[in-house]
Amino acid sequence: MNTNDSCNAFATVLREQGRYVVNVEGIEWYDYNGFMMPAYFPHCCPPITPDIARNVVKISGRPFVRWDSRFGQFKNGQWWYVNHRQPWAVEQCSGNTRSKIKRGRKYLHARMATIEEMSIQGYNVCEKAAQRYEKDVFLPSKLAFQKKLHAATHNPETFQFFGVFCDEKLVGFSENYIQHGGVFWESIWYDPEFLRNYSSYVLTCEMLNHYLNMKKLEYVSDGGRSIFHRTAVQDFFLDKFGFRKEYALLNVVYSAKLRMAVQVTYPLRTIVWAFSNQFPTDVIDKVGGILRQEYIRKECEKQRISPQ
Hints:
Elements: H1 9-16, E1 21-24, E2 27-32, E3 35-38, H2 50-60, E4 64-69, E5 80-85, H3 95-105, E6 109-112, H4 115-131, H5 142-154, E7 159-166, E8 169-179, E9 182-190, H6 199-214, E10 219-224, H7 233-240, E11 244-247, E12 249-254, H8 256-265, H9 269-278, H10 282-305
Helix pairs in contact: 3-6, 4-5, 9-10
């Protein structure tokens, strides 16, 4: 389904959060980690041409824009989303995963979190989660977090917090966006102390039940293939909860300067990736991520023109 609604509730939420959003030729785009993406889930993204994308680069001043096309039309490829479609039942999980969910439920429970609960306890969970990685690069400012609370208050059907609790103590939560029958779990935060009580298992199980069974949404998603950050979250969903990869084509348009830099460094990509694995730094990770993204883009271009 394509949509080019004049009122894009997802884009409205992003604006209220203080994120940069721009409308170009009737299509909403937003800043995601320093580059631009359409403010639409992959199943309802309107058609986008390279000319529109180049205009977004020019207007936004960002180094590149990225978008998906032909979502769900391929059985494999290099670009995918990690999704789970309805219906959901805990019996879909392995015996080991079911056991962990059962043990977790002895101490914890998960449900929609109220704005008051998030206002009082939410940022503390973020701080503890960031400490787990020994750096606060992913930690939002307190002002940014307050803006998220504001956006959720005014757009409860589009932006929601789902929490996992020990009694009434918040020990983890997910920030969830809803658009045209899909829900995107953008950021998930856990207090490390309660991971041993299987808080991640309890939260995931209850969110699947809530959104797929109770709300009857088409699918839940953890987003696209991870390129720029090392993460085990998607493997967790795929291995433990029966998520599946749903494929699409990745499209990228660069600014003139970045396009030239990518062309020069692309032949050295394997060296950069090896160096990034041995000596990871933020800069090397970003360079390696951009080159990996270009590799995926090139593979998708081959897929686009090959016979189906």
